[in-house]
Amino acid sequence: MEKNVSNEKQHEGSFDSNDKEPFANKLKMLMRGRTVRRCSEDWGINLSTLKNYFSRPDAKPRYEVLSKISNVEGVSVEWLLGEKDSFESKNKRCGITVEERQWHKRLSEMLFLLGENELEALTKQLTMKGLVTILYLLNDDNIRLLQLPSVLKEQILTAHQANSAEALNNNKVCASPEAEKSTQLGLTSKHKKAV
Asked: Listed GO molecular functions (predicted)?
């Protein structure tokens, strides 16, 4: 019995890439000064897999790899496969810039540093703040105030600050004017004697 032996490795589940340029060139564009090791960490791809794409121009990426790179870098899978010419195709569609993706990544890294109890506390705090805000927005008066023109809002805030300052000064007095007069009379009255 003779085996059918082929020199070409079959890539099950891989996409046939008819790129105008090799997949490795697309990866180089996405690296933007990062090392291959750093990119493999950022993209969640095995380092040897990523190196394979650079050493073998005919290597065809699996969908899982394409999806990871696409999600992290904000490009479309179609662009990675060479089906679309636009580098920004997914970015424009989603409206996410490279800088915004960096902030998302930083936030994810920061959350990763938190322990289970800290994550739970943060989640509860954000939930409570969200609920308080929603309850605040259920009040029709609050909605009308939010819809006022900016100039009118500034005038209201200025008047409110002035009233708050006046109320604070009134609270600094130890007693009301009537109570102050009766205290003075009691202290100066000749008919009162200490027992």
From this structure: DNA binding
Quick: pLDDT tens for 59-76. Answer: 888 888 988 998 888 888
Distant-in-sequence contacts of 137-140, Cβ < 8 A, 24+ apart: none
Is domain 23-106 in CATH 2.60.40, yes or no?
no
Name the pTM for this structure.
Answer: 0.38
What secondary structure does DSSP assign to 18-46, as a single string?
A: --SS-HHHHHHHHHTT--HHHHHHHHT--
Distance CA 131, CA 143 (A): 16
Residue 5 to residues 2, 9, 59: CA-CA distances in angstroms? 9, 10, 20
Dig out the tokens for 59 from the structure.
């290597």
DSSP summary character for residue 7: S
Q: To the nearest 10°, report the CA torsion of 126, 128, 134, 137.
A: -110
